[in-house]
Design a protein that fits this description.
Layout lengths: L12 H42 L2 H4 L2 H13 L3 H19 L5 H14 L5 H127 L13 E7 L4 E4 L12 E5 L10 H5 L2 E8 L4 E8 L10 E3 L12 E5 L12 H13 L3 E2 L9 E4 L18 H23 L4 E3 H7 L11
Parallel strand pairs: 7-8, 7-9, 9-10
Antiparallel strand pairs: 1-2, 1-6, 2-5, 3-4, 3-6, 4-5
C-alpha cells in the first residue's frame, strides 16, 4: 500500500544566503571604512601643504576632500583627476539608472544619502551600492532557485502520484493472484483428498483380493498335493501288483519296461523347463533323466523309434514332492504338455526294490565308429548311479538286458593285415557265444532285451546330457 506523506518543507536557502551576504558585505564595508580613515589620517599632514593651492579653508575639513587626497596618494594620482573620474562615473549612472531625474536632482539625492550615512565617504556608498547589487543578485538567484524548486516539487508530486497509482495497481494484482492461488490450493486439496480416498479403497481391495487369491492358491496346492499323494499311492499299489504278477508269471515280465514312473505337471517351452510329480520322497536325484511319452499312446519299448517317445528331460532341481527338469531333446512338431508320461527303466521309487541289469557287448555312445570299454562303463555307471544293480549273468532276478553290438571276430583295434593269434580269435569267439547265450536266456525268461539305442532313448540320455555320477 502506498503511504501518503506530508510534503517536506525545505529551508529558505535564498533568505539564508541573502542574510549571509548582507552580513559579509556589511562587515567588509565597515572594515574598509576603518582602513580608509586610518589612511586619510596618516596622509593628511603629507598633503596639507599642497591643498592650499586648490582648496580654501572650509574645504580642507571636508571628509570627502580628505578621501580624494588619500585615494590619489594611494593610486599615485592627483585628487583632481580622481574627482573628475568619479564625476564621470556618476554621470554614467545618472544616464542609465536616473533617466527621469535631472543632474541637480541626482546630486541632491546623493547629498541627502551622504547626510543619512553621517557624511561617510564615497567608498562606503560604493560598498552599499555593491551590497545592494549583491542582494538583488541573490534575490534573483533565490527566485530562480525557488522556481526550480517549485518545478521539482511539481515533478515529485506527479511522480509520487504515478508511483502511488502503480503501487495500488500492483497490490490489487497481487491480491487477485493470491485469490487465484488460494482457489487452486483449495481445488488441489480436494483432488488430493479424493485421490487418497481412491488409493485407500484400491489398497483395501488389493489386499483383500491378494488374501483371497493366496487362500485359494493354498487350498488348490493342498488339493493338488493330496491328489498327487493319492496318485502316487495308487501307482505304488499298481507297481506292487505288477511286481507280484511278474514274479508269478515270467511271461508277463515284458510289461515292466512299458510302465511310466511319473508325469509332467507343468511345462514352459519358453524357458525350456518342465516340472514332474516326483521329488525327494521318491528318491529323485539331480542328473536323473527320463523319456517323455504321450499319455494316449503310453510307454512303448517294442521299437527304437517308439522307445524315443516325444523327447527327453534331465532333473536339475529336486523338491520335496516335485522336481524341475530341463528339456534335453524334443522331437520336431512335438511339445511337452501337462500329464505327459515320463519313464526310466533304471529308476524305481521303491528304495527297497532295485532293478537288475545285465550289460554286454560293444558300445559306441558318441557314434564315432569305435566302441571302447569306457563307453560300456558309462552305461554301467548310469545304471548304478540311479540305483540299478549290475548282474554278471541272466537269472530270474534280472529285469532288463542291455546289449551293444556283438563283438567282432577281429578286434576293432587291429587292421586286417595284422597277424592274429589263436588266443585272440578264441577270446572273440567266446565273447560272441556269451552274447548269444545272454540274448537267448533273456528270451527264455521273457526279460526285455534293449539294445544301446533303445536303452538310451528310454532313459532320456543324449550326447548333450551332462551325466552326474
Amino acid at each position: 500500500m502506498a503511504v501518503v506523506r506530508s510534503p517536506r518543507s525545505s529551508p529558505p536557502y535564498a533568505l539564508i544566503l541573502f542574510i549571509f551576504l548582507f552580513v559579509a558585505a556589511g562587515g567588509l564595508a565597515g572594515y574598509l571604512f576603518v582602513q580608509n580613515g586610518k589612511i586619510a589620517k596618516d596622509h593628511a599632514d603629507l598633503v596639507a601643504s599642497d591643498s592650499d593651492v586648490f582648496l580654501n579653508t572650509s574645504e580642507r575639513g571636508s571628509a570627502a576632500v580628505r578621501d580624494l587626497i588619500a585615494t590619489g596618494h594611494k593610486d599615485k594620482r592627483g585628487a583632481m583627476a580622481i574627482a573628475v573620474n568619479q564625476i564621470g562615473q556618476l554621470k554614467g549612472r545618472i544616464a542609465v539608472d536616473g533617466a527621469n531625474l535631472s543632474y541637480d536632482e541626482i546630486l541632491t539625492k546623493i547629498d541627502a544619502a551622504r547626510n543619512d550615512v553621517n557624511q561617510r565617504d564615497t567608498a562606503l556608498l560604493s560598498a552599499l551600492d555593491a551590497l545592494n547589487k549583491t542582494g538583488q543578485t541573490a534575490a534573483s538567484l533565490a527566485a530562480e532557485r525557488k522556481t526550480a524548486l517549485d518545478n521539482l516539487e511539481a515533478q515529485l508530486t506527479a511522480a509520487k502520484k504515478t508511483y502511488d497509482e502503480s503501487v495500488t495497481a500492483a497490490v490489487k494484482n497481487v491480491e487477485d493472484r493470491k485469490a487465484d492461488i488460494d482457489k487452486l490450493n483449495s481445488q488441489l486439496a480436494d483432488l488430493r483428498a479424493a485421490n487418497d480416498a481412491n488409493v485407500k479403497k484400491y489398497e483395501a481391495e488389493k489386499t483383500k483380493l491378494l488374501a483371497d487369491q493366496d487362500t485359494a492358491q493354498r487350498e488348490l496346492v493342498v488339493k493338488i498335493q493330496q491328489a498327487q499323494d493319492e496318485n502316487t499311492r495308487l501307482q505304488g499299489q499298481i507297481r506292487q501288483f505288477r511286481d507280484r504278477l511278474n514274479l508269478l508269471s515270467p511271461g508277463a515280465k515284458t510289461l515292466l519296461a512299458d510302465e511310466a514312473d511319473g508325469s509332467i505337471i507343468r511345462a514352459s517351452t519358453q524357458t525350456g523347463e518342465v516340472w514332474i510329480n516326483l521329488g525327494r520322497k521318491d528318491h529323485i536325484t539331480p542328473g536323473l533323466t527320463f523319456a517323455v511319452y504321450d499319455p494316449h499312446t503310453g510307454v512303448h519299448t517294442s521299437t527304437d523309434e517308439a522307445a524315443k517317445g516325444k523327447g527327453g528331460i534331465e532333473v536339475t532341481e529336486v523338491g520335496e514332492n516335485q522336481s524341475t527338469c530341463r528339456i534335453t531333446r524334443m522331437d520336431k512338431n512335438q511339445t511337452f504338455q501337462v500329464n505327459d508320461l515320463i519313464a526310466n527303466p533304471v529308476y524305481n521309487k521303491d528304495k527297497n526294490r532295485k532293478y537288475h541289469f545285465v550289460v554286454f557287448g560293444d558300445f559306441d555312445l558318441d557314434n564315432d565308429g569305435l566302441a571302447t570299454p569306457a563307453e560300456k562303463e558309462k552305461i554301467v555307471h548310469l545304471i548304478q548311479s540311479w540305483g540299478g544293480v549290475i548282474d554278471d549273468k541272466v537269472s530270474t532276478q534280472t529285469d532288463f538286458v542291455v546289449v551293444g553290438s556283438m563283438p567282432p571276430s577281429v578286434a576293432s583295434n587291429f587292421s586286417a593285415q595284422t597277424e592274429q593269434t589263436a588266443d585272440t580269435v578264441k577270446a572273440r569267439k567266446e565273447q560272441q557265444d556269451q552274447y548269444n547265450q545272454i540274448v537267448s536266456s533273456a528270451k527264455d525268461y521273457s526279460i526285455p532285451v534293449l539294445n544301446a539305442n533303445r536303452f538310451l532313448a528310454m532313459i532320456g540320455y543324449y550326447s548333450t546330457t551332462v551325466v552326474r555320477y
